[in-house]
Amino acid sequence: MANHFKYKDNFYSIGDTVSIHFKIKEGDKQKNQIFKGILIKIKGNDDVNRMLTIRRISHSGLGVERIFPLNSPLLTDIKLIKKSAYSKAKAYFIRNLTESQIRKKLYS
User: Fold this and answer.
1) pTM, entire model
2) Fold of 4-106
3) Residue 21 near residue 34, CB atoms below 8 Å
4) pLDDT, tens only, 13-71
5) Contact partners, residue 67, CB within 8 Å, separation at least 6
6) Alpha carbon of 67 to those of 43, 86, 98, 100: distances in Å?
């Protein structure tokens, strides 16, 4: 159970490329934002405590990691973009790899 979770009848696992939709409040306005990246860590034993760590490469080439609580009311949707064949519990090794090296390790 440490390397996968279920959200709205879909299963997601470590190494999958996901798109997370969440709400952001700017002053009195509220807008939806999308964070697309690779799921590298799942923390927590049950759905109340579950936290997801997603990593993506920004336009300037820097790696950006963001932690999302699965039980947050600001989280609106999670969509699977690409399924991975990776089977370990954490994918920290992708922090030191280029995008082409990540594709070879995760999706082959």
Assistant:
1) 0.84
2) SH3 type barrels. (2.30.30)
3) yes
4) 888 899 999 999 888 999 999 999 999 988 888 878 889 899 988 888 788 999 999 88
5) 51, 52, 53, 54
6) 10, 20, 21, 24
User: Which pair of structure tokens corresponds to residue 20?
Assistant: 């997370």
Position 85: which residue type?
A
Amino acid at 55: R
Helix/strand/coil (H/E/C) assignment for every residue in 53-92? EEEEECCCCCEEEEEEECCCCCEEEEEEEECCCCCCCCCH
Q: Compute CA distances 85 → 13, 16, 53, 92, whole Å.
A: 9, 8, 18, 16
- The ranges assigned to domains in the chain are 4-106
CB 63 within 8 A of CB 57: yes
What is the pLDDT at residue 21? 93
